[in-house]
Design goal:
The complex is a heterodimer of chains A (359) and B (522). Chain A is mostly helical and 359 residues long. Chain A has 16 helices and two strands. Helices cover 58% and strands 1% of the residues of chain A. Chain B folds into three domains: 191 residues, NADH-ubiquinone oxidoreductase 51kDa subunit (Rossmann fold, 3-Layer(aba) Sandwich); 160 residues, no CATH class; 116 residues, no CATH class. The chains are: A mainly alpha (359), B alpha/beta (522). At the A-B interface, helix 1 of A face strand 14, helix 12, helix 15 and helix 16 of B.
């Protein structure tokens, strides 16, 4: 056997890109399953369409670029991006929303920049924002959760029609998300306790995710569990989720103390599935977040601040996507200014002063 | 860096388990001052020490038919032979003297005949031939005349350094830096603390572990001799907490012999705990400035193996002619530590341990994290070699580099605080100067970044390449500048000569005119 030459180290940790991506997908699975469970067949259809087109677009781009298709596809990054895009879509969105979303995420958001590791913006969030701006009607039809196999849930044929046939969901089967509801109600002069009551808000309901919303953004609980599992597996670090959630909680506490009739408290925000998904799965995206621990704290805090500002004073009910994209654009700046201190040097990179009495 | 490491919750390491150990010494200076010793970066590679850790050092290695003594196996200038081909030499006899201030002599590991002085493949990734003295053992293994047992503490500190230097002792932890030079530096700078590195954080290697378990009293004696040579009062031995037996043995020896001068401290097991600056930081809380040495903060570090060699050199007058080396790896049938004469062919060491050449994918000298790959094992054992590994295909990670996903595991793992991913991005783009701004020169090549990279990018390889390339460029620039300077000087000289010639001509002209004037005047 030939002994090939290469410099040390000759041993390596087991962890590979593929296993990282698959672990993240596994952590997403409970929340996704919950989404499909409460929103029925159409949710499953749009999910499959989005993930499949993401993988197909990735393969097409790799072929065009003349790169190795099988090896790169197997790393699972396209699967994960497609999965995340699907989670941000309204569960009863028509099929082409999923295809366009996958195109924007994979082709425009990732491959145009040069593929894995090169993109500036989070592909899933880019896709969501582009879709929301381009197709505001389709992107804001929020199906109400229905117990599966109940009379309210759409049947298989009806579901096929909803996803693939352009069937408009029946009246009464859709509604607003809680964030949107509170905002609309306030603009009509109704205060928080009123709007929460009429919106049928409940803490546990919200925590579990029995509310209208995007396919995979309703259950804070499942994403919290998945996120903590990722922390335990050391796939992500605590800095970004912690600072992002803490900033939102802090701001929400502050404003609810100032005016409890207008601003919902921290628990209202923290039990939103989108925030949990964003904090543990979106903002922690390796490629588009800073690489030093301190930089990650700043990044997370910035995301949290923007989420709160957009949710509270912006014209969109939900702000995670915009917040993450805006902070993505700051990542190179943060990485430029916030670096770990090098051993034996001060923060400016100059060698440390010698202790007194030594020369 | 982190205020609270959430990972600790899951690792069960939130509480300092070490403090529950009965013999834990908690007199770390850092703790007393209230600043917790900081550990930066690091990884936890598979230790793979179990194959050799519990087997005693094999001292019965048969004398090989030929010893190959490389004349340049230490930092500094190569040694200069003082024997001729055909000379009969005794064990311990001086064969080659050190040249210059930083160098080390070479002694005969056994008695025999100097067979040749020639170029022989060296223990280097290139295995290029370097000047080597070939000694054919006569099988008698007869010592030269050894001095009576010496009381080291009756010698002057300067004498200790001299004798350590004359015995050819170099750093046995791998660096092979002449120990006497370090001792002199430590004495001149009046260091306060001598640190002894018993970390041995590289996977597979157990030679220091075994040495501490089996010859703790000799090591402690060696440390006391070094303290005497340095004029220092305090030594701390750092031992990783995965070597509890070595720790206990060393502690007993220190209690018995050192009158409190030698403290044995447990340090956490991770890689690279044995990096001198990591150990300095952990044990003393001090940080060595980037442009300074350990002695600048009042400490000096030696390896346990070096302490052993110093004791042998001073107390018994025995020069460094053998060392303990770990022979291990998946392709080695009966892995163990061997006390082998310097100059033994690594191939014969491997053969002694029943290795299977057909299963060997890579030969490594040293540990798998920082060691060097050898193209073949037919190179001699050098003083700085702690291990020789024959690794199988399964043990050697394949390199199939993929895109960087900026996961920043390399940033977390770097013990120096660099951003390896940013440096590699610049090096790959050919912007070597840019990578300097990210601290390329501060890289210690420990390999932690390459180890953790999920994209299998050989980061350290890039850094070594960039550093080498920058050095070549500097040299080329220097040469170009020298050439330019010489050319300018030549031009200036020609110009000057021209002017001088012109001036001389003018003077001659003037001189020629003068008589006329005189004539006219006359």
């Amino acid at each position: 056997m030939s002994t090939s030459m290469l410099s040390a180290p000759f041993t390596r940790s087991e962890l590979q890109i593929q296993s990282i991506m698959l672990t993240v997908v596994l952590a997403l699975a409970p929340g996704t399953a919950w989404g499909v469970f409460i929103f029925g067949w159409p949710a499953l259809f749009i999910f499959i369409v989005t993930v499949a087109s993401a993988v197909a677009f990735e393969a097409a781009c790799l072929m065009l670029a003349g790169k190795r298709v099988d090896a790169t596809l197997l790393d699972g990054s396209a699967l994960l991006s497609g999965w995340l895009i699907a989670l941000t879509l309204p569960p009863w969105a028509p099929w082409w929303i999923g295809v366009v979303g996958a195109f924007i995420g994979i082709v425009v958001g990732k491959q145009v920049f040069g593929g894995l590791g090169q993109n500036l913006f989070n592909p899933a969030m880019l896709a969501r924002v582009a879709l929301l701006v381009s197709f505001p009607v389709e992107m804001t039809v929020w199906a109400n959760p229905t117990p599966p196999f109940s009379s309210a849930a759409p049947g298989l044929m009806e579901s096929i029609a909803i996803t693939f046939g352009g069937l408009t969901p029946a009246d009464g089967s859709t509604g607003a998300t809680m964030l949107g509801w509170v905002k609309t109600e306030f603009s009509q002069g109704r205060l928080l306790d009123q709007s929460l009551a009429t919106g049928d808000y409940g803490f546990y309901k919200s925590l579990l995710g029995w509310t209208g919303g995007s396919l995979g953004e309703t259950s804070a609980l499942f994403y919290l569990v998945g996120g903590v599992w990722l922390l335990k597996k050391q796939i992500i670090t605590w800095q970004i989720p912690f600072s992002m959630l803490a900033t939102v909680a802090l701001l929400a506490s502050l404003f609810t103390l100032l005016d409890g009739e207008r601003y919902p408290g921290p628990l209202f925000h923290l039990t939103s599935g989108a925030l949990m998904l964003g904090a543990f799965f979106i903002a922690t995206d390796y490629v588009t977040s800073p690489n030093s621990p301190v930089g990650q704290m700043i990044f997370g805090a910035g995301c949290g601040l923007l989420v709160y500002v957009i949710r509270t004073w912006g014209s969109y009910p939900e702000g995670v996507a915009f917040a993450v994209l805006l902070m993505n654009s700051l990542t190179p700046v943060i990485d430029h200014y916030v670096r770990p201190r090098i051993y034996g040097r001060n923060r400016k990179g100059k060698p440390l002063e010698l202790p007194e009495g030594r020369e | 860096m982190a205020l609270f490491d959430i990972h600790a919750l899951w690792d069960g390491k939130l509480f300092d388990v070490q403090s529950l150990l009965p013999d834990k010494p908690f007199e770390f200076k850092g703790l007393l001052k209230g600043n917790q010793p900081k550990i930066r970066g690091g990884v936890h590679p598979e230790p793979r020490k179990e194959a050799t850790a519990d087997r005693p050092i094999d001292t019965g290695f048969p004398l090989p038919p030929m010893l190959y003594l490389a004349l340049w196996q230490h930092v500094g200038k190569p040694a200069d032979p003082v024997v001729k081909v055909g000379d009969r030499v005794l064990k311990g006899q001086l064969l080659a003297v050190s040249q210059g201030l930083v160098s080390a002599p070479i002694h005969a590991p056994t008695s025999g005949i100097v067979a040749d002085i020639m170029d022989y493949p060296s223990a280097h990734p290139s295995a290029l031939p370097t000047p080597t003295l070939l000694l054919e053992p006569d099988g008698e293994d007869r010592w030269m005349e050894l001095p009576e047992k010496i009381d080291p503490f009756s010698l002057s500190p300067e004498e200790i350094s001299l004798r350590v230097g004359a015995a050819g002792v170099v750093g046995l932890g791998g660096a092979a830096f002449p120990s006497a030079v370090k001792l002199n530096l430590g004495r001149r700078t009046k260091i306060q603390t001598l640190l002894i590195n018993g970390g041995e954080c590289e996977p597979y290697l157990t030679c220091d572990d075994r040495l501490m378990r089996e010859r703790a009293r000799v090591i402690v004696d060696g440390i006391l001799i070094m303290l005497h040579g340095l004029g220092a009062q305090k030594a701390i031995v750092g031992i990783e907490d995965n070597k509890l037996e070595a720790y206990t043995t060393m502690r007993m020896a220190a209690d018995e012999l050192s009158e409190g001068k030698v403290e044995i401290a447990l340090v956490p097991s991770f890689y690279p705990m044995g990096w001198d600056k990591q150990l300095i930081g952990y044990l003393t809380g001090k940080e060595v400035p980037a442009d300074g040495r350990a002695t600048d903060v009042g400490v000096l570090m030696h390896n346990v193996g070096t302490a052993y060699a110093v004791q042998q050199a001073i107390r018994h007058g025995k020069p460094l002619i053998s060392r303990i080396v770990t022979v291990s790896g998946g392709a080695v049938g009966s892995a163990r530590n061997i006390e082998a004469p310097i100059g033994t062919s690594l191939a014969s060491l491997l053969a002694h341990c029943d290795y299977r050449p057909e299963d060997t994918a890579r030969y490594v000298m040293g540990g798998p994290m920082m060691g060097e790959s050898l193209p073949h094992p037919n190179v001699p054992l050098v003083k700085g070699a702690c291990g020789i590994l024959a690794l199988t295909q399964e043990e050697v990670s394949a390199t199939n580099a993929k895109s960087c996903i900026r996961c920043s595991r390399c940033v977390t793992a770097c013990p120096v605080g660099l951003q390896p991913l940013e440096m590699v991005a610049r090096i790959r783009a050919g912007q070597l100067e840019q990578s300097l701004k990210f601290g390329l020169k501060d890289c210690i090549s420990c390999g932690s970044c390459s180890y953790v990279c999920p994209s299998e990018i050989p980061l350290v390889h890039y850094f070594k390449y960039a550093n080498g390339e920058l050095l070549t460029r500097d040299q080329a620039n220097h040469k170009a500048e020298q050439t330019k300077k010489l050319a300018e000087e030549k031009l200036a000289r020609l110009e000057r000569q021209k002017q001088e010639a012109a001036a001389a001509a003018a003077a001659r002209k003037a001189a020629a005119k003068k008589p006329k004037i005189t004539e006219q005047a006359a």
